[in-house]
Amino acid sequence: MIEETETIEEFLARCSADVEEAVRKAAAAEILPRFRRLAAHEVDRKNGPHDLVTDADRLAELRLTEDLGALLPGSAVVGEEAVHADPAVYEALQGDAPVWIVDPVDGTRQFVHGDDGFCTLVALVQRGVVRACWTYAAAREQFATAVRGHGAFLDGQRLSAGSPEPGRDLAVATSHPDYTTDEQKRALRALWSEGIAPRPCGSAGLEYLAVARGALDAVAFSWEAAWDHAAGLLLVEEAGGTHLTLSGEPFRVTGGNALPFTAARDAATARRVAGLLRGAP
């Protein structure tokens, strides 16, 4: 619980471990017991054949909403499933109160298919600034965290994105074709060029983690949903990377971005990818 005169920084110094525990408990109670054990009635579709949701998504989000709200009274929670039920929930990102952004199962398609490439994403945002994030790949037993100004860590080891090796093709994960419109496909097609090795992305959260680890050079995404991006973008920033939209500005979790956008291991890579997305030679 935040004290009356406590700042967000002081709250995080005192309670970051409590947030991690809440994320681990939600995954242990609601996600992992259903991994590779989902019954047909536990899987639904939301906005199309590829947009899946499961009981694990719903129940983990409910648990996190309760636990995170208790840790920080007066905060709001913007969860993917809550916004699907009531789009007005998303408007909390425009306010002054601290906001927890929650994606209970990022990579639901992978989760449904029994692939371990999924994670739980939590970010704490205040006035549009991501202050801290927690990325938990429960099936892989990996936990990444970052607090703004204090670095990014994976299982206690500091992350450094570094820079791509000179002379090789840049590895770039892009919005998956199943989730893109024809217009978005045309914009992203610019990455199919000399010196770039694009591929469809999996879980956005795990792709951001790969950038922060230096295992992937960049991502190029065409959608704005804050629950997919807030945690990963801070992780990349705190590992030394950066992100750019088509306007040349950093991505804003509050929306209104010029899309597509990129997050990359270093500024030079971000400028190169963003330039291609803009159609620059």
TrEMBL record:
Annotated Pfam families: Inositol_P
Keywords associated with the record: Hydrolase, Magnesium, Metal-binding
InterPro entries in alphabetical order: Inositol_monoP_metal-BS (IPR020583), Inositol_monophosphatase-like (IPR000760), Inositol_monophosphatase_CS (IPR020550)
GO biological process: inositol metabolic process; phosphatidylinositol phosphate biosynthetic process; signal transduction
Major enzyme class: hydrolase
PROSITE patterns noted in UniProt: IMP_1, IMP_2
The reaction(s) this protein catalyses: a myo-inositol phosphate + H2O = myo-inositol + phosphate
Coiled-coil regions listed in the entry: none
Transmembrane segments: none
Listed name of the protein: inositol-phosphate phosphatase
Protein species of origin: Streptomyces capoamus
